[in-house]
Amino acid sequence: MKTTILERAQKIIDQRRYTAENTAINNKVKAYEDPIFKERYQKYTQRMIEESRLGQDESEATKALKALCEKRLVELGIGSIEPQFYCKKCGDLGIKNGRYCSCIKAEINKILRKESGFDKLCDFNEVNFKVFDNPEYMEKLYDKMKKWCHSKFEKNLIFISGGTGVGKTYLIKCMANELINNDHVVNLVSSFSMHQDFVKSFASRDLDEKSLLLDKYLSCEILFIDDLGTEMRLPNVTLNYLYQVINERKMKRLPTVITSNLDLYDIKDYYDERISSRIIDTASSICVCIKGKDLRLKK
Ligand SMILES: [Zn+2]
């Protein structure tokens, strides 16, 4: 059976919880073999239950008994009999107060990054603006994009155009990193690999697989598409699927960031009016163009 990225991440979290709980149970069984621990622990639990039945706070005497139990565990060289959860916030449930916890989001991000091949990201704090042809402009642009990462995403589509090697991919790697560090779920993909999934989805006869292949583009909280226009164009696939992704995300107000060697005029010619008008939509899009020489050639 094929599983979604969320299910895969949940499995990792569940596994952590089982391990923590099982370790605690095993420790308790081991500790119970020691008569001193057993006696102290039984006394402690009796008192604790009695106090909570009477609605009282834990007394000093009960706390002292608990400390004695813990001391005995150390003497015996046995670990804690309470589950030691990896995530203290949610106790390895992946959900807290009805929302996804940062621990499961981190796992989703890890899976997405591994799948997309964008394993290494960049950091806004480490950008050396001197390498750019137009350092002042770039500093302002990076600053604007960093602010966007901390916004409520009223502008939910960002289109960054510019020639090869002007630093577009570097910029979106900084953005993805910033967003991940702030608990967002980010899918950063090359247009080429996204298009490969479009083709697979188009060709698949399995309905589950068909939608699963598109799910990470349609539903992911924040999607980055790098180098739009470099994919192989196929009739019945490229335009329809790309429009579906951009349009559906706009409708759901899910942020999308696109980089491309093509400018907005080229986009209209290369794809079609529907796609370019969704990208240009001034009310909810930010379009920027980076000018400059190829940094890779400059080196
Ligand atoms: Zn958690």
Q: How is this structure best described in words?
A:
This protein is α/β, with parallel strands linked by helices and 299 residues long. The protein has two domains: 104 residues; 182 residues, Rossmann fold (3-Layer(aba) Sandwich), CATH 3.40.50. The protein has twelve helices and seven strands. A hairpin with a 2-residue loop joins strand 1 and strand 2. Helix 7 runs antiparallel to helix 8, helix 9 packs parallel to helix 11 and helix 10 packs antiparallel against helix 11. The radius of gyration is 27 Å and the shape is elongated. The relative contact order is 0.12.
Which key features would you list for this structure?
single chain; alpha/beta; 5-stranded parallel sheet; 299 residues; Rossmann fold; 2 domains; two-stranded antiparallel sheet; elongated; binds zinc ion
Enumerate how many helices there are, as a single number.
12
Question: Which shape, going by the Cα principal axes?
Answer: elongated
Could you tell me the number of beta strands? Answer: 7
Number of domains: 2
Oligomer: single chain
What's the gyration radius in Å?
27 Å
Biggest sheet: strand arrangement: 4-5-6-3-7
Percent strand equals 5-15%
CATH class annotation of the largest domain? Alpha Beta
CATH architecture of the largest domain, by name, is: 3-Layer(aba) Sandwich
Low-confidence stretches: none
Give me the CATH superfamily of the largest domain: P-loop containing nucleotide triphosphate hydrolases
